[in-house]
Write a structure and sequence with these properties.
Radius of gyration: 19 Å
Number of helices: 14
Order of helices and strands: HHHHHHHHHHHHHH
Largest sheet: none
Oligomer: single chain
Helix content: over 70%
């Protein structure tokens, strides 16, 4: 489930390539969430009422903060940060997400970090940094970019918080788990509402009327696959294993982006990028073959 979730999420880079120049970020997010809901509501229509009645106020708060940190704040901080720093520096800092997730999982969730998990996380982080060009020419940190770099680091922290909050929600629910499709629909709806105000400043109607079939297909892909299907897989996966394991699998996002950039966009990749991809896969294998249970909880069948 986690492998599928982060592989699908990695296709977001390709989808964004088609629409990011013509549409504002919050417009893209709001429209993609709309398409996600069109896909999700028929899937969970029979479950939605029963699930909503069974949810407590704390459950609604958990879902709101997941949408706030995992989608809204993450994208906002990332976009603003990229206007104040270089893409190379941003890539290095976003590569810290698995490490931040592992640290938070140890502190907040008390998940054990054994030798195999530690090696897996280090391998994943090293692979991400290699793919994104750690210490390559032009990618050195600059004091002029300090403010932007801090925003990028906050975006990475928001993504890590989303991972931890998802696992905390599973623990708080106990045996009464929320169906992944219902959970994804509620988070998508919340994110769409949060995007309405900032999207209004991006001339959404005029820009949407000006795009062609290719851009609409990219938005549809972003909503159905990158959001709906990827988040269903995410919630199904995080209910079965710990946040540290999820942190290692997050390395599939940059690796998938690399593969698609080479195969579809025709970009070139050298030994450094492929070595980074190998380290990501090795990190996943290290943690995936760890027979110890995550955080003291046995996995669901």
């Amino acid at each position: 489930y986690l492998f599928c979730a982060f592989t699908l999420a990695g296709t977001s880079v390709l989808a964004a390539e088609y629409v990011s120049v013509k549409l504002g970020t919050f417009t893209i997010t709001a429209v993609s969430q709309f398409f996600a809901l069109l896909c999700l509501l028929p899937l969970c229509r029979g479950r939605m009422k029963a699930e909503l009645r069974a949810m407590s106020r704390k459950d609604f708060v958990f879902l709101f903060v997941q949408a706030l940190f995992g989608m809204f704040l993450f994208r906002m901080l990332l976009i603003i940060g990229l206007t104040r720093t270089s893409a190379g520096e941003a890539g290095i800092l976003t590569g810290a997400t698995p490490a931040i997730t592992a640290i938070l999982a140890r502190l907040a969730l008390k998940e054990p970090v054994g030798g195999k998990k530690s090696v897996g996380i280090l391998s994943t982080v090293a692979g991400i940094l290699l793919i994104q060009g750690l210490l390559m020419p032009g990618n050195r940190f600059s004091m002029e970019h300090f403010g932007g770099n801090m925003l990028i680091l906050c975006a990475a922290a928001c993504e890590s918080l989303f991972n931890i909050l998802s696992r905390l929600f599973v623990r708080s629910a106990g045996t009464r788990t929320l169906h992944p499709a219902v959970q994804t629909a509620l988070v998508s709806a919340t994110t769409m509402v949060l995007c309405f105000v900032p999207a209004a400043f991006e001339d959404p109607v005029g820009r949407l009327l000006a795009i062609g079939p290719g851009e609409w297909f990219a938005l549809l892909w972003y909503g159905v696959f990158v959001t709906a299907l990827a988040f269903i897989c995410w919630y199904a996966g995080i209910s079965r294993c710990g946040a540290i394991t999820a942190a290692a699998f997050s390395g599939m996002m940059p690796f998938t982006s690399l593969l698609l950039s080479v195969l579809i966009l025709g970009e070139q990749a050298g030994l450094r990028q492929w070595s980074g991809g190998a380290l990501v896969i090795a990190g996943i294998l290290f943690i995936g073959t760890d027979k110890k249970t995550d955080g003291g909880f046995s996995e669901k069948p």
